[in-house]
Amino acid sequence: MMEGAAKRAADPAQEQGGRMKAELGGVVVLDFGGQYTQLIARRIREQQVFSAVLPCSSSIEEIRKLEPAGIVLSGGPSSVYDAEAPKCDPKVLALGIPVLGICYGMQWITHTLGGKVEKAERREYGRAQLNLEDSTKGDVGSELFTGIPASLRVWNSHGDHVRALPEGFRTIAHTENAIAAVEDAKRKIYAVEFHPEVNHTERGTELLRNFLFQVCKAEPKWSGAAFIKETTAAIREKVGNRRAICALSGGVDSTVAAVLVHRAMGDRLTNIFVNTGMLRKNEFANTLEMLRDRLKLRVIGLDASERFLDKLKGVTDPEQKRKIIGREFIAVFAEEAQKLHGGKEHGEIGYLVQGTLYPDVIESVSVKGPSATIKSHHNVGGLPEKMPFALIEPLRDLFKDEVRRIGRELGLPREILAKHPFPGPGLAVRLLGEITRPHLVTLQDADAIVVEEIRRAGLYEKVWQAFAVLLPVRSVGVMGDGRTYGLTVAVRVVESDDAMTADWVRLPGEVLERISTRIVNEVRGVTRVVYDISSKPPSTIEWE
Question: CATH number of the domain at 24-215, please?
Answer without folding.
Answer: 3.40.50.880
